[in-house]
Amino acid sequence: MTTTQTSSPSTGAAQLRSPGFLATIDAERIKFFTLKTGPIVTAVLGLFIVLAALLSSLSLISPSSNPNPQADPITSVTELRFVDTVLWMAIVFAVVSVLFATTEDSSGQIKLSFLATPKRVPVVLAKTIVIGMIGFAIGTIASALAMLVPLAVLSTSEVTYQFDLPEAATLAVASGIFMAMIGTVSLAFGLLVKNVIVAIAVPVLLFSILPSILESIGNGVVTTIVGFLPSVAGRVILTTFPNPAGLEAWPGMAVLVGWAALLVALACVVLRRRDA
To answer: What percent of the chain is helix, strand and coil (3-state, nearest 5)?
Structure first.
């Protein structure tokens, strides 16, 4: 008598819940924190966000001795003034994310990762989760501290700080999501492009230089397209500048999340077909 052993096909969801995938995430976490520059630069950019808020607060209570006579004095500020540094520090985190993606490839260690985890998609997803969690944590914590610092600095000044806890919490979470998604987009570029220089240059150009160049063309269609670029769409909730495509805060963030998901999916497809 013969017995037939049946097995149900494993699904992607089952793989994500398996201990093997959790071990892969932990391995990628260890890799990030064993890099010489990644954790240090990430911590420094978080401190810089808080420091920038401190300096901005001090500038309000100690204005320049030669102020612009045509400018009205600032008498009231909101939380939004102290989180704009997140937009610039996200570009630094983009570089960290690219290096996290490309260091293994340039050193040849990626072969060991694929040997330990033959299926490459879990490796890509694990890297994405690690960089996303780190970006969310540093963005949320640093921006929250940046909005709390002015409470102490401006408490005895003539400048009114219109601090609203729900609004501050929303901005802190949005800052974390923005940092995480910028890191994810950059990580995907790093996985797609083997050349480290190109992998760094593409996100930096896409996030900072390209939007300004395209918007300066003045064409309506091009300007609308600029509004859907990752950093331009995602920054709406963190700035008073209007979006060229008319996107509101959370729809703009959703566009940034869509960019991240699309590029990670593309990285999964490419790495499955590419030799290590």
So the answer is: 75, 0, 25
| Burial tier of 96 (Cβ tally within 10 Å: 0-12, 13-18, 19+) | buried
Rounded distance, CA 183 to CA 97, Å?
Answer: 5
Closest by CA position to 127, among listed 260, 274, 276, 273: 260
Q: How far apart, in whole angstroms, are the C-alpha atoms of residue 94 and residue 189?
A: 10
Burial 192-219 (b: 16+ CB within 10 A, else e): bbeebeebbebbbebbeebbeebbeeee
Please give the torsion angle defined by the CA atoms of residues 91, 95, 96 and 98, in that order, rounded to the nearest 10 degrees.
Answer: 130
CA distances from 24 to 10, 90, 98, 106, 112 (A): 18, 26, 19, 20, 12
C-alpha–C-alpha distance, residues 109 and 276, integer Å: 10
Give, for all 276 residues of the chain, the pLDDT tens digit.
444 444 444 444 444 444 488 888 998 998 899 887 889 999 999 999 999 999 999 988 876 544 555 566 788 899 999 999 999 999 999 999 999 988 876 555 555 555 555 577 888 999 999 999 999 999 999 999 999 999 999 988 888 899 999 999 999 999 999 999 999 999 999 999 878 899 999 999 999 899 999 988 888 899 999 999 999 999 999 998 899 999 999 999 999 999 999 999 999 999 887 755
State pTM to two decimals.
0.86
3-state secondary structure of 51: helix
Between the alpha carbon of residue 198 and those of residues 98, 188, 202, 269, 276, the distances in Å are: 10, 13, 6, 20, 19
